[in-house]
Design goal:
Length: 316
């Protein structure tokens, strides 16, 4: 799907028409849309097809040129929430391309993203900033903030998972833990790659010419480094939690087996007594009128005594 936007010098973003647009966004682009744009604006085909590959890494092309002799490509990665094959929440990273030419900005993604929401991020831009710098800074800040938000989400889910450990006897928690670890692996790789692109941006001759712009890019780099650090800490927490999980589940299963064993032992007592007095032989007090009630009382007392003895010796 193709969307047209107009971004004025006051950095006000609005929907536009093909004739007045200066920002085109492709969402899940078709080959026909890609070929049309590459032909109209003389763009390399791989600039737009890159986002169709979910494994595409962060990269840049022609960022070091001194003027816009060639279209500039920036590919950054952003996080998105999904469902793992095991059926639990899992986060992954996808590529987002930003293309600059002398006349137009083209962005592209393979998932549904709101350009207006992304551009409305809280990063305050200086006056008279070029549109290229404004778009780059706004989107980069949005992606860095989104990484930090999802890492905090994983941290909160880890706390809930840890609370379930006490009574865990199934593998469900292990699957959830595995999906969170995979998410953090994706995050760490994507954040490191994005950070490398931001560093290249800071030395680019065609981007960020003022101290204010460089300061904002530095803030984005700090936000990205914070996400990398948080992801690393959370990965260590999950790793330690994973080491504990198997032992805790095994211990909880042992407790269950102990309880079942105690129940079996206690239920065996009346079976033995009933079996003995049910034999067709002479037994003491077998002909007493109240023998049934005496046997019932003795069985109950012996069962209680057995439970107390097992409990006293910490069998359960």
């Amino acid at each position: 799907m193709k969307s047209y936007y107009a971004l004025n010098k006051q950095l006000q973003l609005s929907e536009s028409t093909p004739e007045k647009t200066n920002w085109i966004h492709l969402e899940k682009p078709t080959l026909e849309e890609i070929e049309e744009l590459t032909s109209t604006y003389h763009l390399p085909l791989d600039y737009l097809t890159a986002v169709l590959d979910n494994q595409e890494i962060s990269r840049q092309e022609h960022l070091n040129q001194k003027s816009f002799d060639h279209p500039v490509l920036l590919i950054l990665q952003y996080p998105t929430a999904g469902t793992s094959p095991s059926g639990y929440k899992q986060f992954e990273t996808l590529p987002f391309s930003i293309i600059f030419t002398q006349n137009i900005i083209v962005t592209s993604s393979n998932t549904s993203l709101s350009i207006q929401e992304m551009f409305a991020s809280k990063l305050k831009l200086p006056q008279n900033i070029d549109l290229y710098e404004a778009v780059t800074l706004k989107l980069s800040w949005y992606f860095a903030s989104l990484f930090n938000y999802y890492i905090r989400t994983i941290s909160a889910e880890t706390d809930l998972l840890e609370a379930e450990l006490q009574n865990a006897t199934e593998n469900k928690q292990l699957y959830q833990l595995m999906d969170m670890q995979k998410s953090l692996i994706y995050f760490d790789a994507a954040l490191e790659q994005n950070l490398a692109i931001y560093r290249l941006m800071s030395t680019s001759p065609i981007l960020f010419h003022t101290k204010e712009e460089h300061a904002l890019l530095f803030d984005i780099m700090i936000e990205t480094k914070q996400a990398i650090s948080s992801a690393d800490i959370q990965a260590q927490v999950l790793n330690q939690l994973g080491n504990m999980f198997s032992a805790i589940i095994s211990n909880n299963m042992n407790i269950v087996m102990k309880v079942l064993t105690v129940i079996t032992i206690v239920l065996t007592i009346p079976t033995i007594i009933g079996g003995v007095y049910g034999m067709n032989v002479k037994l003491p007090f077998a002909n007493e009128d109240n023998m049934f009630w005496w046997l019932t009382f003795a069985t109950f007392a012996l069962s209680i005594l057995t439970i107390w003895w097992l409990r006293f010796h910490k069998f359960f």
